[in-house]
Design a protein that fits this description.
42% helix; 308 residues; 5 strands; single chain; 11 helices
């Protein structure tokens, strides 16, 4: 029983003290409780508030509970077969005269603590994040699928390729009609030129493990570099892959996609690839001139000018 005092326990303690001082009849009239109720708790009260707590109403015995012989049979069978499953254990017990259902066996084994304790999974300790120290040191690249409700033509598929410099948060967005290695390679060439016009030399690009970026998880082309990787090598850019199924490692570009959803895709519609490209260019200029808290409330363009 816990050490906490409930309202009912405090109420009963007040009732007991009043009954001791003024008598049971007067306490019954004041607290509007029967005399039998007061005598019941007076018999339990030993002067401490803990004695006025409600006791468990669980029965001590049950006519259908497991017998000692059945419990001994279960313990012995589990001790001799510690690694078999519960259904197989129940089947072997049945061959030795056990007549209970598997649900009853499960409850008894859980009460007796006969199930092996689950091994604790090792706590994942992420590596400390490497802060970038100058523009172009690492650029995160990812693809966002344009929501279907934003596209007027139901047959048209649109994709937004995004590159964001980790140091300056300067973004370059481009519109494509397919998500492929060819589009990724073309986007890589365009982003290198776009950043170069702003005085930033891209040294490294970081992507996820999608087939548009790498053949890492391909079944028949695993040993061959993808078109994106070949283009990066041709441009002298290091290609870094994040840990599989860990999008938080590309957190900056993922976070920017959430802002795109809120500020751009929630209130725009597109009628063709050219229309999407024009509206995306306007959104790109607006986002690069929007103040950000990590940059001390400077826009990415204002922040990049300080280091270029």
């Amino acid at each position: 029983m816990g050490k906490s005092i409930t309202q009912d326990m405090a109420y009963r303690q007040s009732l007991m003290k009043y009954a001791e001082k003024y008598g049971v009849s007067r306490a019954s009239r004041k607290y509007k409780k029967s005399r039998s109720y007061i005598y019941f708790w007076k018999g339990r009260w030993d002067g401490t508030v803990q004695s006025l707590a409600c006791r468990s109403r669980r029965p001590h015995h049950h006519p259908n509970q497991h017998t000692e012989a059945e419990l001994k049979l279960i313990r012995d069978m589990r001790r001799r077969n510690p690694h078999i499953g519960m259904v197989e254990l129940w089947h072997r017990l049945r061959l030795r005269g056990y007549t209970r259902r598997p649900e009853s066996l499960f409850r008894v084994m859980r009460t007796l603590g006969l199930f092996p304790k689950a091994e604790k999974k090792p706590v994942y300790k992420p590596k400390p994040y490497q802060q970038m120290t100058y523009p172009g040191q690492r650029v995160q690249v990812d693809v966002k699928v344009v929501p279907r409700r934003c596209v007027a033509d139901p047959e048209l598929r649109l994709f937004q390729y995004t590159a964001i410099d980790e140091f300056t948060r300067l973004r370059f967005l481009a519109a494509y009609s397919e998500q492929s290695s060819y589009s990724s390679a073309d986007f890589l060439k365009r982003l290198v030129k776009w950043y170069a016009r702003r005085g930033i030399r891209v040294e490294c690009v970081q992507t996820d493990n999608g087939p548009e970026f790498t053949n890492r998880f391909s079944t028949n082309k695993r040993d061959r570099p993808s078109l994106f990787e070949a283009t990066a090598a041709q441009l002298g850019i290091r290609h870094k892959l994040i840990r599989p199924y860990t999008p938080r490692h590309n957190g900056k570009v993922e976070r920017s996609h959430r802002e795109d959803q809120k500020r751009f895709y929630s209130c725009h519609s597109f009628y063709s690839l050219d229309d999407f490209a024009k509206q995306l260019a306007v959104h790109n200029r607006r986002s690069n001139n929007f103040p950000m808290r990590p940059l001390d409330w400077c826009s990415p363009l204002e922040f990049a000018v300080q280091f270029v």
